[in-house]
Design goal:
With 278 residues, the chain is an alpha/beta fold. Helix content is 31%, strand content 27%. A hairpin with a 4-residue loop joins strand 8 and strand 9.
Length: 278
């Protein structure tokens, strides 16, 4: 079994309401990821060796001098970057572009026009004909007014000039909208494009692969020995029992533990269930 954690994504959290949803979408695609605070130790970011980095949204304004910034290690590790909402704004602000407060804040559905087909957006559209247009979800007060050197504008809306930007050479991308929410219809496809095509991640982080990996670890650790397991019928011990039985079969010996907190006849039910299935 290949290392399930080898192809991993780092998500830096700038305080967004959707950060955990970003992580969920990444894992649903089949890629391992971790969420760290935006001001995490830069040395640990480099040591983590991610295949790509996602910068989340956030409630702050990049027009403020004390606004949260991405650590320098984010740009030094040389991996693809995807900035989402505030994440794109701080990309622009830190790399020589400009952001500003919008005349009108955008909260809700929006239609994005793709003006340059980069590796992230090429072929994605929710409407027939040209130019490609995407139905997305916006939630922002600031926007990118000028892209940094090396970047091009890849999408826009009627209200903002930069709805997405890209530096294809460095594989750094930014989107003002939120691909992690279901309201952005092509959001899953966009994230998959970033993770698999751009970052080169294998989609190994699935329940089936995790189970197979754990079984292999148990077999390597136990060898030809037996295992004595205290089994109460709770979620933890039940999952361990099922996993161990798959790994070592009849060399697992379960001892029922009546905690005194079981419901009426629940102990009999637990013993009968595991006697039948293990």
């Amino acid at each position: 079994m290949s290392n399930l954690h080898a192809d991993r994504i780092l998500i830096l959290d700038f305080g967004a309401q959707y950060t955990q949803l970003i992580a969920r979408r990444v894992r649903e695609i089949g890629v391992y990821c971790e969420v760290w605070a935006w001001d995490h130790d830069p040395a640990e970011i480099a040591a983590f060796a991610p295949k790509g980095i996602i910068l989340s949204g956030g409630p702050e304004s990049t027009t403020q001098a004390d606004a949260p910034r991405a650590p320098s290690a984010v740009f030094a590790v040389g991996v693809p970057i995807l900035g989402i909402c505030y994440g794109m704004q701080t990309l622009a602000a830190q790399l020589g572009g400009a952001t500003e407060a919008a005349d009108q804040r955008e909260f809700g559905h929006a239609c994005v026009e793709v003006v340059a087909a980069d590796a992230l957006l090429a072929g994605l559209s929710d409407h027939p004909g040209a130019p490609p247009r995407l139905n997305v979800w916006m939630s922002h007060g600031d926007h990118v007014a000028q892209v940094p050197p090396g970047f091009v504008i890849t999408a826009r809306t009627e209200r903002i000039p930069v709805a997405a930007m890209a530096d294809e050479t460095r594989r750094w991308y930014g989107v003002q909208f939120h691909p992690e929410v279901t309201h952005t219809l092509q959001g899953e496809a966009l994230l998959r494009r970033f993770l698999v095509t751009i970052c080169g991640c294998q989609t190994w982080w699935t329940a089936a692969h995790i189970i197979a990996d754990q079984i292999a670890r148990v077999q390597a650790q136990v060898g030809h020995d037996q295992v004595l397991l205290g089994l109460s019928g709770g979620v933890d011990s039940s999952v361990v029992a099922a996993l161990l039985h798959r790994a070592i079969g009849d060399r697992l010996i379960c001892v029922f533990v009546d905690t005194g907190l079981l419901r009426w006849h629940e102990g009999d039910q637990v013993m009968a269930t595991f006697a039948e299935h293990l």
